[in-house]
Each structure stands twice: as C-alpha cells, then as structure tokens.
Design a protein that fits this description.
By secondary structure, the protein is of the alpha/beta class. Helix content is 41%, strand content 21%. The chain starts with a helix and ends with a helix.
C-alpha cells in the first residue's frame, strides 16, 4: 500500500514537472520571438540611434492600444530582419520609466511611432494604420526601397566622363567659380540608387556640352560638407554658382527634366532669393508657399490650413495633387488660405521645429495667427475640405463641395 501511494505521488510530481517544463519552454519561445524588438531607454537611446535606421514605438504599459500593437510590432521586427536588406532596428521605449526621453521626443499620446533615419537628425512620425503590411510599406517608402525591377539601375562598364566625385578636400576649390549641379547622396538611400544611372548619363550628355560641372558628394563620408549645405534628405540636388548655393532642384528626376532645369539655370531664369517664394505659387495651383520670413504674416488673419512637408517624402508627394485641388476649392473665398512649408529649406527648418512638426506631412489649421488643431484624418479631398469648412462655419462652401 505504501509503495502504491509513493508511486502515485511520483507520477503526480512527474506530470507537474512536465507541465512546468512545457510552460517554461513556451515562455522562452515567446521571449525569443519578442527579443527582435530592441528595448531603448534614456541611458542607451543616443548611443544606439546612430548605428542604424530605427523605427520606435513609444508606449505606456497601461495603454490598451499599445498592448494590442505589441504582437504586430514583434512580427514587424522579425519580418524586417528576414526580408529587408537595409539594417532597420525595430525598438520600443517605455515612457513610464523614460519620462524625460519621451518628453524630449514630444510624445503626447500612446503609442507614438517614429522613424529615425540613420544620419538624419529629424525623425518622421507614423500616423497610418497599425497593421503589418502598412507598417512594412511605410518603412520601404521612407527608405526609398522598391520592388524587384525598380531596384535595377543603369550601369555602364565604361568610365563616365564629366561626373566628378567631390570631397571635403576638393569641393570648395572646384565650385569656387562657374556653374555646378551637385548631387548629395547616401549609398544606402533607395532613391539615390535608382537615379544613379540617370545622374551618370546626365554628366556624360550635358556636362561636356554646356560647361556645367555635374558632381556628387557622399554624405556618409563627408558629413560636415553636407551639413554646411544644409542637406537633410537624400538625394539633394543643388545648383551652385561661383561657390554659392543658388537653388535646390525639386522636380522630377528624369534625364529630360534635369536637362531642362540646367538649361533654365544657364539662361538666368533662376530665383536667387529665398523671399521670392513668399508669393503664391505660379502655375495651376493657388497653394501659398510660406517660408520662415513671412510665416507669421501669412497666418495672421483669417483661416490658414498649412501643410508642412519634405520633398523626398512619399506620402507628401501623393498628397500634393489633392492639396492643390483643396486650394482650388477655396479660390475666391475671402479669409481662407491653403498653404505649404518646405521643412528642408533654410530657415524653414527652425520654423518647423518651432511649430512642433514631428513627421511629414503634418497639417495644422490656424485661425487669426493661432494654431487651432492638427489634422489627423483621412487625406481625401472631401474630408479635408469639410475639416476647414467646419471651422469657418460656411454652409455655402459645403454645398459647393
């Protein structure tokens, strides 16, 4: 009898041990899956950030939205590591312990998702859907990564004549006189990779004919030089004459359009003053271009809906036609302006920082000089029109829509 009781006790203990072991193994597997997400805090944030691109979730443990996002965030970390050639770190910051860090990053709600490109001081705030495909697409678009055939760039086994590699040793001497079209780039930048062949062809076909020097600067090697020219995104294409920056190219990057820009600049049609941009943009759009020097006057009276953007931002490019349409809808309506600010230009960077622009595009609505609200809704024409019309309480404007 004693033997039977002891045997049953041993069996019971054995099964308990098996169950505990299974739970332990299961827990380890879960930890292993989640370990792809890097934990950052006030102690290691600044040291880790320059090492790679970072997509960071700022969260609070008590936040329900954060808890629901965590499994997707862990899956994103695993997917990025296995499917992207770019080194992107998926990380998280607990704002209940790293309070000062989250305050510095202007985190006012949870979760806040921000992308930090390697070597770029400004971060980009993510405001889209929080499913895996949308998050992955955002990363690819931010880095300029394309699918299969789009990654192929033109190559030429022959040395390209006219394309000049510029460095901190030869740059200033080279651009001291004459006209120069210079590409500032980073080797990891997908947009730069896609236009590499076009830029080389431009140097070969245009540089020799016109006397215009076509150059390029690797900003990962010559960061001081790129900082001097206020390069904040890649690629940045600058027209430089007699050692001074004249204009930043922001058009299409096709060979024909780049060539047309060179011809225009050589004929002396460039706007050389930043304040020349204070007027309404000419052409088919009534969108008002605001800059640091005229911003306060621009929003001082009436209702002003302002888009803060960066030319390299994919989301901004897709929004641009709708923004033009929105401005057209309000043509003739007294006291309403649809405007935009390029946050990569000169003094505009400080303006955007002062206005607490943390990502692109950011849209703020102003009334008589005061910021009223940030627009965070659907970017359709109807929704944005209704947002502005609600403030001005104009029933006629709604009927016209």
């Amino acid at each position: 009898m004693y033997f039977q009781t002891s045997f049953r006790a041993m069996q019971c203990n054995f099964f308990i041990a098996v169950i505990l072991l299974m739970k332990l193994v299961s827990g380890n597997e879960a930890d292993s899956g989640a370990s792809q997400v890097v934990k950052l805090d006030s102690d290691n944030f600044q040291a880790e950030l320059p090492k790679s691109h970072h997509f960071i979730m700022f969260f609070a443990p008590w936040c329900g939205h954060c808890e629901r996002l965590k499994p997707t965030w862990a899956e994103l970390a695993s997917t990025v590591k296995s499917k992207l050639n770019e080194e992107v770190t998926i990380a998280e910051v607990d704002c209940t312990t790293a309070t000062s860090l989250c305050s510095q990053q202007d985190v006012t709600g949870y979760p806040t998702l921000k992308f930090f490109s390697k070597g770029v001081s400004e971060s980009q705030r993510y405001r889209g859907p929080r499913d895996l495909p949308s998050l992955l697409t955002f990363i690819k678009e931010t880095l300029g990564l394309a699918d299969s055939t789009e990654n192929v760039v033109e190559t030429n086994n022959e040395p390209v004549k006219g394309a000049i590699d510029l460095s901190e040793d030869n740059f200033h001497l080279h651009v001291a006189s004459g006209e120069h079209f210079v590409k500032f780039f980073a080797p990891w930048c997908g947009h730069c990779q896609k236009m590499a062949g076009t830029w080389d062809n431009l140097a070969q076909s245009v540089g020799q004919e016109t006397g215009v020097s076509i150059g390029k600067v690797d900003c990962t090697q010559f960061r001081n030089l790129c900082n001097e020219f206020e390069v904040k995104g890649y690629p940045t294409l600058l027209w430089i004459k007699d050692g001074k920056k004249v204009e930043k190219y922001q058009g299409s990057r096709t060979h024909e359009d780049l060539k047309a820009f060179i011809e225009r600049m050589r004929n002396g049609n460039a706007e050389t003053a930043q304040d020349a941009k204070t007027a309404t943009v000419t052409g088919s759009t009534p969108v008002v271009q605001l800059v640091g020097s005229n911003f306060e006057n621009g929003i001082a009276s009436g209702v002003t809906f302002v888009k803060f953007y960066a030319p390299w931002c994919g989301h901004c490019k897709r929004l641009s036609p709708t923004w033009d349409e929105l401005a057209t809808k309000f043509v003739g309506k007294t006291g309403v302006k649809i405007a935009k600010v390029d946050c990569t230009e000169g003094s505009n960077r400080q303006l955007c920082a002062d206005q607490k622009v943390n990502g692109f595009p950011t849209m703020f609505l102003y009334s008589n000089g005061e910021k009223v609200e940030e627009y965070d809704g659907n970017r359709s024409l109807d929704d944005m029109f209704s947002f502005v019309a609600k403030l001005i309480n104009d029933k006629q404007a709604k009927d016209e829509l």
